[in-house]
Amino acid sequence: MILVEHAVVVTMDPGRRVLADGAVLVDGGRIAQVGRAADVRPPRTPDRVIDGRGGLVLPGFVDTHVHVSEHLSRGLVPDEVPVDRYLPDWYGPLYAAITPEEEAAAARLACLEMLRTGTTTFCEAGTLFDVVAVAEAVEAVGLRAILGRWTWDLARGPGRLAQTTDEALRLTEETLARVDRRRSGRVSAWPLLIGFGTASERLIRGAHALAERHGTGWGMMHFASHPSRKTADTLPLATLDAWGVLGPRTKLAHMVYVDPADIALLARRDVKVSHCPSAALKHVKGLAAHGRFPEMLDAGVSVSLGGDSANGSNHLDMLRLMYLAALVAKDARLDPGVLPPERVLEMATLHGARALGLEAEIGSLEPGKRADLVILDLDRPEWRPLLDPVSALVYSASAASVRTVMVDGRVVLDDGRVTTVDERAALADVERLARPYLARAGLGVRPRWPLTD
Ligand SMILES: [Zn+2]
Q1: CB 361: neighbour CB atoms within 10 A?
Q2: What H or E segment, with its residue span, contains residue 377?
Q3: Å from CA of 280 to ligand 1 middle
Q4: How far is the CA of 105 from the centre of ligand 1 (A)?
Q5: Assigned architecture for domain 2-59+364-418
């Protein structure tokens, strides 16, 4: 039993209570009590009491679109590479060359970054090859995740990137079974299609059918992303609906190019949308001109946030994602009232939980939910004066104030120290593996301003 007491507690509960002197009592993996510090009464002496004074407690963030394998090539792709060359010239060779050891090292790095920036749950983009190796890395760091195997059938690539529809479905089904069998409770798998127009009708229907059979959600991880550009991402949302595959357990990522009929359809089918603001901006998807995320939220669509990839975003820092989501929408509408910080924080927590079908378990600090929480250090200049904690969180705080993180009631970051894995060794592994991996993929590292002795 762990008691966090005398902290500012942003509950995200149905009343959206923010407690000035609050406490959270954790029993095992779950939250037992949340309330004013004076009202939270442990039934026995807690094993540990965390003094929350000078701290703010939040539910852990949920990132609904992450490519963990790409962390080994972070920052490799030069800015001037045109959008239509990413997949054939860069991502294809990178994904074709990666080994299980490299994939696990990249996943550890991505998980450590998420942990240190307050994200406790994420959904991979369906771009993994050795899902079990990645599941082990995620479990070692201690995060909660939904993973998915590389799945496409229309696009081609070197080696194992070439897949028939039957192979893609068989590999997905194997992944669901192998990750399910682990039963760690924190890591599971979904049928996750890469998207970008790389999936046939039969693959999409097959992925949906597998999700139904296994009782999971399914996702199309790059949809309505670049139709105005030179990609094959042109499948209309109405066509997916005609195939009967849209529903509350469908997650579509990016969704920059939607019209009012699409938004009405997303709301009607309760489809979950993952908005990736940093990737939309860096990959010039036309977010400010075309994005309709405030309108989706107004229409009742659940919109969460995604950090995307290490060459398309290049970070998984939810505080920066919230900041971008709020500000780009305001400027695009010439209306500072669009996407207020409270709404953006809902995207990063409650909507993220909904997107992954985990709304009964995570996304808010309420008795009975999983104890996934973050404690931020308020004794830093950017938080002061603490007039409005939610405004400060979205507009002025940085992830450097993330101090302690708990997942399933287990303290995985303890006052700035990672408790689960050897963080220095994980970073050293990444340095050791990255350059030989990139060389094997045939990709040179050429900074415009090279490192010199
Ligand atoms: Zn992506």
Answers
A1: 18
A2: strand 373-377
A3: 10
A4: 19
A5: Roll (2.30)
* Structural tokens at position 292: 């309709």
Among 1.10.260.100, 3.50.50.60, 3.30.499.10, 3.20.20.140, what is the CATH number of 61-355?
3.20.20.140
Bridge partners of residue 26, in order along the sequence? 2, 31
Question: What phi and psi values does residue 200 have, to the nearest 5 degrees?
Answer: -80, 170
Spell out the domain ranges in the chain: 2-59+364-418, 61-355
CA of 394 to the centre of ligand 1 (A): 23
- What spacing in Å lies between the alpha carbon of 205 and ligand 1's midpoint? 21
Query: What are the residues whose beta carbons fall under 8 Å from the beta carbon of 80, sequence distance 6 or more?
Result: none
How many angstroms separate the alpha carbon of residue 196 from the centre of ligand 1? 10
Ligand 1 center to residue 278 CA distance, Å? 11
pLDDT tens for the chain, 453 residues: list them: 999 999 999 999 999 999 999 999 999 999 999 999 999 999 999 999 999 999 999 999 999 999 999 999 999 999 999 888 888 899 999 999 999 999 999 999 999 999 999 999 999 999 999 999 999 999 999 999 999 999 999 988 888 889 999 999 999 999 999 987 666 689 999 999 998 889 999 999 999 999 999 999 999 888 888 765 556 788 999 999 999 999 999 999 999 999 999 999 999 999 999 999 999 999 989 999 999 999 999 999 999 999 999 999 999 999 999 999 999 999 999 999 999 999 999 999 999 999 999 999 999 999 999 999 999 999 999 999 999 999 999 999 999 999 999 999 999 999 999 999 999 999 999 999 999 999 999 998 888 898 888
